[in-house]
């Protein structure tokens, strides 16, 4: 056996210590309270994004709105899936997912910006995706190797947020979004 691995008897003994901490063992390398706080901020951001995309889905009107509206709905569903991943991880780490509507909007990185113009909707969603990309990138960097499971969750969400940004940019560059009027 490799010298750097803990022997099986020590592993077993350590696993019995702090058993009520669930998956958080003595080897957990991050600041648990800060990780839960960070994840709750990410959760708030995802909730706000879910609602904004959903509002834009229903508010999108005009000749070119149908494909964009359907994309908004798909993104809303994906943002909700991100929120579920984050809430599950918070609970797994022993925290409480913060979903109080009175707290969510103030805690989120992204803003809830309702819009009536299709182009404005696309732009607001692109801005929110860029905010999400920047914040997830910072979170991943901060975590480093301290919590590889949370890092993987954030990396998975980041990849999807980058796809969302690309989708919004594609709409802005296409005929689906009428040009801005001065």
TrEMBL record:
<keyword id="KW-0408">Iron</keyword>
<dbReference type="InterPro" id="IPR014490">
    <property type="entry name" value="Dps-like"/>
</dbReference>
<dbReference type="InterPro" id="IPR009040">
    <property type="entry name" value="Ferritin-like_diiron"/>
</dbReference>
<dbReference type="Pfam" id="PF00210">
    <property type="entry name" value="Ferritin"/>
</dbReference>
<keyword id="KW-0409">Iron storage</keyword>
<protein>
    <submittedName>
        <fullName>Ferritin-like domain-containing protein</fullName>
    </submittedName>
</protein>
<feature type="domain" description="Ferritin-like diiron">
    <location>
        <begin position="29"/>
        <end position="179"/>
    </location>
</feature>
<dbReference type="InterPro" id="IPR008331">
    <property type="entry name" value="Ferritin_DPS_dom"/>
</dbReference>
<dbReference type="InterPro" id="IPR009078">
    <property type="entry name" value="Ferritin-like_SF"/>
</dbReference>
<dbReference type="InterPro" id="IPR012347">
    <property type="entry name" value="Ferritin-like"/>
</dbReference>
